[in-house]
Design a protein that fits this description.
The protein is 84% helix and 0% strand. The chain has 5 helices and no strands. It has helices spanning 2-26, 32-55, 57-60, 63-87, 94-118. Helix 1 (2-26) runs antiparallel to helix 2 and helix 2 packs antiparallel against helix 4 (63-87). The longest helix is centred in the N-terminal third of the chain and has 25 residues, at 2-26. The two termini are 21 Å apart. 29% of the residues are buried. It binds protoporphyrin IX containing FE (2 copies). One protoporphyrin IX containing FE binds at residues 16-17, 20-21, 23-24, 29, 32, 35-36, 39-40, 43-44. One protoporphyrin IX containing FE (HEM) is lined by residues 16-17, 20-21, 23-24, 29, 32, 35-36, 39-40, 43-44. This is Cbb3-type cytochrome c oxidase subunit I. InterPro entries: Cyt_c_oxase-like_su1_sf (IPR036927). Keywords: Membrane, Transmembrane, Transmembrane helix.
Amino acid sequence: MGVRLIQIAAVYFIIGVGLGMFMSMSHDFALSSVHAHVNLLGWASLGLAGVVYHLFPQAGGSTAGKIHFWLHNLGLPVMMIGLILLNSGVEGMEPVIAIGGTAVTIGIISFVYNVFAHVKSS
Ligand code: HEM
Ligand code: HEM
């Protein structure tokens, strides 16, 4: 689970940095909040969680870890695609972004619970 998350995070990293390069070169900053959250919720947060799950396998293998994995990985693309469409002028995207963001947030609550339940010095 830890290794898988680090690999997924690396994919977000290349997308996030690619979007940053695109914005810089085109001088079009409409997708700056997508860039910020792909990098921070995708690369930084998922990557850090992957390292935690790799260092503490009891956290990586727990039910709370699996809940976090799925809610974060399913919610984030929904939130990001909704945000891209909203910033591109598509109306009515707020509920889509809210559903994705809420899924990610519940996943992160599960991650935090998991840290206190299963990350312990041996
Ligand atoms: C080659 C890599 C990158 C490039 C070219 C780049 C480029 C940009 C650009 C053009 C903006 C918009 C600035 C504006 O709206 O005035 C931006 C915003 C931002 N970037 Fe990057 N970025 C890169 C990597 C990263 C990484 C790795 C992270 C985080 C881990 C990051 C986090 C952010 C954040 C949080 C904002 C929003 C700042 C704000 O709205 O105040 N960026 N970036
Ligand atoms: C599900 C979780 C999250 C939701 C729903 C969320 C939502 C938002 C919203 C609505 C904004 C304002 C965007 C705008 O004014 O265009 C924002 C800005 C920002 N958020 Fe988040 N956020 C989340 C998680 C995070 C995390 C985990 C980080 C950092 C690790 C972060 C870093 C930022 C930064 C740096 C900005 C300012 C950049 C910008 O305005 O684009 N967010 N967030």
